[in-house]
Amino acid sequence: MNIALWIVTGLLAAAYLLGGGFKLIMPKEKIAASGASARWVEHFSAAGVKAIGALEVAAAVGLVLPALLDIAPILVPLAALGLVLMMTGAAITRARRHETKLMMVDLAYLALAAFVAWGRFGPESFLT
After folding, report:
1. Would the pTM of this model clear 0.85, i.e. be above it?
2. What value, to the nearest 5°, has the Cα angle with vertex 35 and ends 111 and 63?
3. With contact defined as beta carbons under 8 Å apart, do 73 and 66 qualify?
4. Would you report the helix, strand and coil content of the chain in percent, each value rounded to 5?
5. Which of 17, 34, 69, 71 has the most CB atoms around its CB within 10 Å?
6. Which residues make Cβ contacts (< 8 Å) with residue 128, sequence separation at least 6?
7. What pLDDT, in 10s, does the model give residues 70-108?
8. Residue 13's CB: how many other CB atoms inside 10 A?
9. Three-state DSSP state, 87
């Protein structure tokens, strides 16, 4: 179970580090022009998109570093819970935009983050 949690955590961290970094360095207009899956940015201000990117990068760091450095490992499941909340908002945004297929991707990320939160709060906690 611990290995599965580490694999999922690593994949989530990589995805959110790349995605969040992209949102931080690219202007909102370029993100919107990058494809149909990125049109959600039209519903947010440029500062809002940057804030989402910053939260994603912070979550990616929070998923991995506390456990690796053994400094405040409780931050790992808390970061995962933060991603659950973020992906809930993403799924709601997709539902409002009638983007059902893309919403399913958001729900898959939500499920993976929930798995990490459950595993790190419960059976494979770093606190025991």
Report:
1. yes
2. 30
3. yes
4. 85, 0, 15
5. 17
6. none
7. 999 999 999 999 999 999 999 999 999 999 999 999 999
8. 21
9. helix
